[in-house]
Each structure stands twice: as structure tokens, then as C-alpha cells.
Specification:
about 40% helix; single chain; Amidase signature (AS) enzymes; 2 domains; about 10% strand; about 500 residues; alpha/beta; 11 strands
Length: about 500
């Protein structure tokens, strides 16, 4: 048995379990030990379900002993973002208003993972209701970046990205509304994919912005990410926005891309996603990645998407407007926190006291922005205009894809920033997602793959840089093919080069 099962990729782990070299229980115990060793520092998990994880692993071992054919990821442990509903296991969405809530049902992706024998280790930390770029908006404290514990692991899916980067889990689930899978993946040196909107069921995701939210996979390698994508994707009649189409061949594309042949592919570098505000080290790493693409046979050209510069403004009207509607369900009546119910106060006062106590500052800010944007006399001027900009962004993509197979850019303008550095400056925090916002506004797939390291501002360890690859709707496989080629060209997973955390064996 290897000295440290936590260092294996998900694909390697699954192969060893399938061959009988190790048991799923041994793998799960190794990851639970790793969590105990380092998570006091990383703070990736809100809840660790040791008993449930070991029971799932034991069931996988029993099914395999009986000769049953199991899924490609059976027995592989996973970190699950706490916005995804889990039957019998607390789900808070990073908010005090749902503290202690134990759902009576599973989200569709939870059910699919259980059926595949994936071992859910626990629920990962996140910005409250997925509103944030650093996990600092979590009601339960910030997670930390394993590359530098003074820095953010990104957000809102920072707990999942930190867990995967810290070898607490080989794979993870996040959700991406404006960049909340890709941005955390970039700053922690792992792979994260936002699927085509409707490609993965939203049933059982606690809603932030219903026209934008999309669950997706994290992994330390492109192949691991694709394997998880294949498990969770597909049509779901429980989700009216779910696409009834075949799942793109993402695993085959990841395997093909690893050979490094991109002949015949045209890659468009988005002119507007660079320049002022982008750290020199980030741009240098991405330029080196573009050169690698050319070496592998791709034609690399510059393309202009002139309306991408308006994505930030459009997003921060559309998403808060939808959040204002979605979060109205937290009314102190049906579930969750209930404050001030003394038998004297009326329902409206109880509701007001509950929402005041239960929601954090960023959630309140976005509810107020959204409510204002939807109010009488302002709807057309704000929400309506933002939707028109969204259409223009979609047209920019369509025009670019007439000549390009994929588009590329940095995933984030900077490497991971220091915790506390942007908490009092919402606009600086929002700027973390400048590159990631256009794709969800258009409903398109996009992946972040490590492109190397760049100097940390102020000194310290060099930090990961992410390269973003965007493709047309339902062409998720193109994202994986190009990402796998970059990964191979740069010598394999970047996460393997992360500093060793204290507490490791």
C-alpha cells in the first residue's frame, strides 16, 4: 500500500480499489486522517461525516467483493460544497439562517454521487449563499489557501477548492454563478469546470441566481475533473432548466488532450480580458501557455469581445435581483432560524428580526441591490438594461466562435490575495471575477486549468495562476481537451508542487 493514499489522483485511487490493491475503507480512513491533521489550519470543512463516509466505503467494498460492476469513481472520497442538499446531513449554505437544518432529501447530484459509490467526506465551507470570492462571507469563518495560509482559497466554493488542493479529498463539487468554481480553482492550483447551463441538474441546490447557478467538478487533474463531471451530468426531469441532450464526451476528450495534439484547433485570446489591473506574473504565465498551445499545433489568434467590459455591471444587477426573489423564502415560517417569536410579536416583525440576525452583510447588500433594481419605476432602467447587455455578451461569444473553436484568458486578474485585504472594498472583491463573468451570463462552459506560478505580491511563495478556456454551449469536451493538453505540456498537475502543510505525515 502506498505511504500516502491521499497523494493519488482520483483515477489512480479508483484503479487501485478496483484491482483490490487497497480497499475503499482504507482510502477513506486515510483522507479522514488527513482532514484531522491539517483542517484546523485549512478550515475547508464545515461538517465531516466520518461515520457516513466509512459506511459508504464499506458498502463499495462489499459490492466489489460480490463481483458487482461499479462506477469508475466508486470508493473515491469527495468534498461537497454546503450549498448542495444532503439528506440526513446538515446543509447551511454558509449561513446562520440555516444553521442546524438537516434536509429530508438529496439533491440530484448528491443522489447520483451516492449511486456511483463516491464517498462524501463532508460539507465544505463557502461564502454565504454563494455570494463572495474569498469564503470570508461565510458565517462560520474563512477557509485558507494551502499554498499560503494567509491567503484566500477563492470563493464562493473556497472550501471545496482548499480541500482538494490540501489533499483532504481528491475531488470536490462547487457551484459557479459568476466564477465560483473557476476562480477558486485558479488560486489554489487545481482544475475546476463550469458546465454548460442546464448540463448538470440544479435540483437540490440552494438557489442564489437561478438563471446563472451551475454545479460543477473540481479535481487536481483534468481527467479526475472530467470523470466527476460525467457522474453528475445529464438530464433531470426534476429541473425544468435541465437540458435533455447527451452528455458531452468529456472523459474521452481529457484522455485525447493529454496526448498534446491540437492540430486544426483555433484558439482565440480575448483582447478585453487583460491589460490594466492584471498582475504581470499572471499575464506572463498565460502568454507562456498560449505559446504551448501553438507548439501543440493550435492556431492562436486575438479576438475582440467588446461587451465583456460590461459583464461586471450586468452581473451585479441580474444576480442580486434573482437573489432578492430566491432568498425571500427564508421567512422564519417554514424552516431555519426563527428569532423573536415570543407569542406577542407579529409575523412580520419576527420575519424582520430573523432576517436581520440570520443574513450576513454581503447577503443583505445584494438583497437590497436586487430589490431596488426590481422595484416599480426602476426595473427597465436597471434589470431590463442588464438583460440587454447579457444578450450583447452572448452575441460577442457567437461572433468569436464563428472563427475560433475555444476562447482563452487568465481565469483571474491576480493570484490569491491576502485574507482581509478586500473585505471592506466590495468593488475590489467583485473584480476577482472580471474574467469569469461573461461565460455564465451566456450560459457557456468554461474551465480553469493551472498555467504555472507567479510571484506573490509582497513576497512569499510563488502562487498558482489559472488559464480559462471557454467553449460554445454543449462543447464542454473542447474545454477538457485543451485543458488536458496544457496540463501535459506543463509537466502534470500543479497541485503536486504545493508546499507541504504542517501536520502532514
Amino acid at each position: 500500500m502506498p505511504d500516502d493514499l491521499t497523494r493519488l489522483t482520483a483515477a489512480e485511487t479508483a484503479a487501485k480499489i478496483a484491482s483490490g490493491d487497497v480497499s475503499a475503507v482504507e482510502v477513506t480512513r486515510a483522507h479522514l486522517d488527513r482532514i484531522r491533521a491539517v483542517d484546523d489550519d485549512v478550515r475547508a470543512f464545515l461538517v465531516v461525516d466520518s461515520d457516513g463516509a466509512l459506511d459508504c466505503a464499506q458498502a463499495v467494498d462489499e459490492h466489489r467483493a460480490n463481483g458487482e460492476q461499479l462506477s469508475p469513481l466508486a470508493g473515491v472520497p469527495l468534498a461537497l460544497k454546503d450549498v448542495v442538499v444532503t439528506r440526513g446531513l446538515q446543509t447551511t449554505s454558509g449561513s446562520k439562517i440555516l444553521e442546524g437544518w438537516v434536509p429530508p432529501y438529496d439533491a440530484t447530484i448528491t443522489r447520483k454521487m451516492r449511486e456511483a459509490g463516491i464517498v462524501i467526506l463532508g460539507k465544505a465551507n463557502m461564502d454565504e449563499f454563494a455570494m463572495g470570492s474569498s469564503t470570508e462571507n461565510s458565517a462560520y469563518g474563512a477557509s485558507r489557501n494551502p499554498w499560503d495560509l494567509t491567503r484566500t482559497p477563492g470563493g464562493s466554493s473556497g472550501g471545496s477548492s482548499a480541500a482538494v488542493a490540501a489533499f483532504e479529498a481528491p475531488i470536490g463539487i462547487g457551484t459557479d454563478t459568476g466564477g465560483s468554481i473557476r476562480q477558486p480553482a485558479a488560486v489554489t492550483g487545481i482544475v475546476g469546470h463550469k458546465p454548460t447551463y442546464g448540463g448538470v441538474s440544479r435540483y437540490g441546490l440552494i438557489a442564489f441566481s437561478s438563471s446563472l447557478d451551475q454545479a460543477g467538478p473540481f479535481g487536481r487533474t483534468v481527467l479526475d475533473t472530467a470523470l466527476l463531471h460525467e457522474v453528475i451530468a445529464g438530464h433531470d426531469p426534476m429541473d425544468s432548466t435541465s437540458l435533455d441532450v447527451p452528455v458531452p464526451p468529456v472523459v474521452a476528450a481529457a484522455r485525447e488532450g493529454a496526448h498534446g495534439d491540437l492540430a486544426g484547433l483555433t484558439v482565440g485570446v480575448v483582447k478585453e480580458l487583460g491589460g490594466e489591473g492584471y498582475e504581470p506574473g499572471v499575464e506572463a504565465a498565460c502568454r507562456a501557455a498560449y505559446a504551448k498551445l501553438e507548439e501543440m499545433g493550435a492556431k492562436v489568434v486575438e479576438v475582440s469581445c467588446p461587451h465583456f467590459g460590461y459583464a461586471l455591471a450586468a452581473y451585479y444587477l441580474i444576480a442580486p435581483s434573482e437573489a432578492s426573489s430566491n432568498l425571500a423564502r427564508f421567512d422564519a415560517v417554514r424552516y431555519g432560524l426563527r428569532v423573536g417569536d415570543d407569542g406577542v410579536r407579529g409575523l412580520e416583525e419576527v420575519m424582520s428580526l430573523t432576517r436581520e440576525a440570520g443574513f450576513g452583510p454581503e447577503v443583505k447588500r445584494r438583497i437590497m441591490i436586487g430589490t431596488y433594481a426590481l422595484s416599480s419605476g426602476y426595473y427597465d432602467a436597471y434589470y431590463g438594461q442588464a438583460q440587454k447587455v447579457r444578450t450583447l455578451i452572448s452575441r460577442d461569444f457567437a461572433a468569436a466562435f464563428e472563427t475560433c473553436d475555444v476562447l482563452v484568458s487568465p481565469t483571474t486578474p491576480t493570484v490569491a490575495f491576502k485574507l482581509g485585504e478586500r473585505v471592506d472594498d466590495p468593488m475590489a472583491m467583485y473584480a476577482s471575477d472580471l474574467c469569469t463573468l461573461p461565460a455564465p451570463l451566456a450560459g457557456l462552459p468554461a474551465i480553469s486549468v493551472p498555467a504555472g506560478l507567479a510571484p506573490a505580491p509582497g513576497g512569499g511563495n510563488d502562487l498558482p495562476v489559472g488559464l480559462q478556456i471557454m467553449a460554445p454551449a454543449l462543447a464542454d469536451d473542447r474545454c477538457y481537451r485543451v485543458a488536458a493538453a496544457i496540463e501535459a505540456a506543463l509537466g502534470g498537475p500543479l497541485a503536486d508542487r504545493a508546499p507541504v502543510l504542517e501536520g502532514t505525515k
